[in-house]
Amino acid sequence: MTQKRTPLVNLKNISISFGGIKAVDGVSVDLYPGEVVGLLGHNGAGKSTLIKCLSGAYQADAGEIFINGKKVIINNPRDARDQNIETIYQTLALADNLDAASNLFLGRELIGPGGFLDESKMEAETRKIMARLNPNFQKFSEPVSALSGGQRQSVAIARAVYFDAKILIMDEPTAALGPQESEMVSELIQQLKKQGLGIFLIEHDIHNVMKLCDRASVMKNGLLVGTERVGDVTEDDILSMIILGKNPKVKV
Amino acid sequence: MNHDPKPENLASNQMGFLARFLNDTEIDTRLLGMLGALALIWGGFHFYGVIFNNFGAFLTPRNLWNLSVQTSSIGIMATGMVLVIVTRNIDLSVGSMIGVIAMAMGLLQVEILPQIVGIGHWSIWIMAVIVGLIFGALIGALHGWLIAYREIPAFIVTLGGLMVWRGMAFLSAGGRTISPVDGTFALLGGGPYGAIGAWGSWAVGLTACLGVAYTIYAGRKSRIKHNFRLRPKWAEAMLAIIGWSAIIGAVLLVNSYPWPKGIVKQYGAKIGQDLEGTFISHGFAIPVLILVTVGILMTILVTRTRFGRYVFAIGGNPEAAALAGIDTKWVTMKVFALMGMLTAIAAVIASARLNSATNALGTLDELYVIAAAVIGGTSLSGGVGKIYGAILGALVMQSLQSGMVLIGFDSAIQRIVVGVVLVLAVYLDILYNKRVK
Ligand SMILES: Nc1ncnc2c1ncn2[C@@H]1O[C@H](COP(=O)(O)OP(=O)(O)OP(=O)(O)O)[C@@H](O)[C@H]1O
Ligand SMILES: [Mg+2]
């Protein structure tokens, strides 16, 4: 991961405010193929808002986005999908009244003969990917409102993984998962990383960050505190960046 | 048969008979509830007549045939209202839209087109209908644009529409009644000539029976192909038999309602035969066939197309729909345009049936339409609704209305009942949803 390579994603000086409050203030982060970059920070630091500028949910007030070195404009979620960016939102973004398959293919439905939805094919595909991600999952015909928090989360993960993303954004993907399911997500992250995906991982559990991430970017009050290679710092270094908002290495 | 036994299947052994029946046939309890309500209303009005007037007028071919015609225009609008309410909106303007669209079509075919193409020209009714449909779609699109792109609440936009379009209906002809409408146009409203007769009804009925059989067969084939849970064979057979009986029953019913003597005589004179005393069946009325066609097309739109899927996704979680790349504003605008177009179809039927266009046509229809959708299981919190439910709901509302007319309730009492039923239907929906959750 030499810095000479072009980054897969380069977010430059991204700023966005809501009614005068600067949620993200001039933050720059980058991501290389086959790399996992952790985004850390206390609640309300601006992590979700930053990645929503990349996923097309928000449009940044200022700043630029480069994908593979090329400047791109992402105005809406469709633009992001066109760039092979898939997102697991913190809120999961599921339509509660629809079943797992409908949610998985939402906005990208499979169309069969006659231009009609190919429901059976979509359900069959959903069964396949869920068997990989969460073998215990059986509730295919119920609306996702009838699922547990963890089951809902696996549907959201399946949706992001199914469509061959190059860039994956995971906003607290294991928040609602049990230990076994969390472990499967960790394995999934490592496997996707091997396939060359770039992953932004928002995660509060510092152990998971140390285990899964190559680098960690820490935010506080909308500002970037710093980005460090996980191998070069200790857990305590990162914790102090999160809590004090100071980069111990820079101070030295 | 079932490759991945699910808990619900294992449990079915311990279920009661009714629960197992419902589980295996996949009939929802809501449908049963509506059929029960319908039976209660029909029986209630009929026996009220038997007891107090010595004559039960409700369960007669004549009344049921008229009921089917009256249900058509409300039913057609109710299918559109399902989509409107599913997307967490409301349309209070449909009654007024009927008025203004009917006036436009009336003026066109009675006062404008005859001057251009000549009186009684064959193309008049077609042009009137097409212009009506376009006009309806445009009004709906305007509402939708204000709601989706200008972000004015649907309640306000369509409440304004309720006033504006009724006012326009009055202004368009200075309050005059426009009649009579074009002869062919009038057939779209039903009546003895606007029905397809005994043989036509049998043809439609048999086609429908084949349709039911094919739907069940194709559904089973697709489930087998993908290894999904199958209905037991007996349940499939039961569904087919229920469907066929309902269809054949309907055909027998409409065929047992004869033309009135005067019409038979008139028709005989026209074709130069003495038909005195001949039994000529009405058969299905054209507006009913329009309703059935609209119902089928709307069901396909809702369940089998992207558009339908997006409508429900928006209702379930607008934010999630937008994040999935759905253009929620455009979909919302299309829903209202569709509502406008369906309202235009209803306006065709209503004015054709009356053989005239009046500026008061469709007054209070919005209440019946909304009540029909809600009774049919459309949830006001959005995301849930069924087309067939709305049509059955329209039948329930219209049964109430015509039953009250039949036993001589005056319009003041009718309004009170409709108002109470509307509130009650929403309350029951809330209770039902609480129990489900
Ligand atoms: N749509 C919005 N409107 C107004 N303010 C917002 C909006 N979205 C985020 N904010 C504000 O921006 C700031 C950053 O929020 P964000 O959701 O990015 O935090 P976060 O780092 O993801 O926190 P958490 O760990 O709790 O998920 C917060 O102060 C929040 O109140
Ligand atoms: Mg967040």
Protein architecture, described:
The complex is a heterodimer of chains A (252) and B (437). In chain A, 34% of the residues lie in helices and 25% in strands. Chain A contains nine helices and ten strands. In chain A, a hairpin with a 2-residue loop joins β4 and β5. Chain B is an all-alpha fold. Chain B has two domains: 312 residues, ABC transporter involved in vitamin B12 uptake, BtuC, CATH 1.10.3470; 88 residues, no CATH class. Helices cover 73% and strands 0% of the residues of chain B. In chain B, α4 packs across α17 and α12 packs across α13. The two termini of chain B are 31 Å apart. At the A-B interface, α2 and α4 of A face α9, α12, α13 and α14 of B.
Task: List descriptors.
heterodimer; A: 252 residues; alpha/beta; Rossmann fold; 9 helices; B: 437 residues; mainly alpha; ABC transporter involved in vitamin B12 uptake, BtuC; 73% helix; 0% strand; disordered N terminus; binds adenosine-5'-triphosphate; binds magnesium ion
Short description:
With 252 residues, chain A is of the alpha/beta class.
Topology, element by element:
The complex is a heterodimer of chains A (252) and B (437).
Chain A (H helix, E strand, L loop, with lengths): L8 E10 L2 E11 L4 E5 L6 H9 L6 E6 L2 E3 L4 H6 L2 E4 L11 H5 L14 H15 L15 H14 L4 E5 L7 H16 L3 E5 L3 H7 L2 E6 L2 E7 L5 H10 L3 H4 L1
Chain B lengths: L6 H5 L5 H9 L3 H25 L7 H26 L7 H24 L6 H25 L5 H19 L10 H5 L9 H29 L7 H23 L5 H11 L14 H19 L1 H11 L1 H6 L4 H27 L10 H11 L11 H20 L4 H26 L1
Bound molecules: adenosine-5'-triphosphate and magnesium ion.
Adenosine-5'-triphosphate (ATP) binds next to helix 1 of chain A.
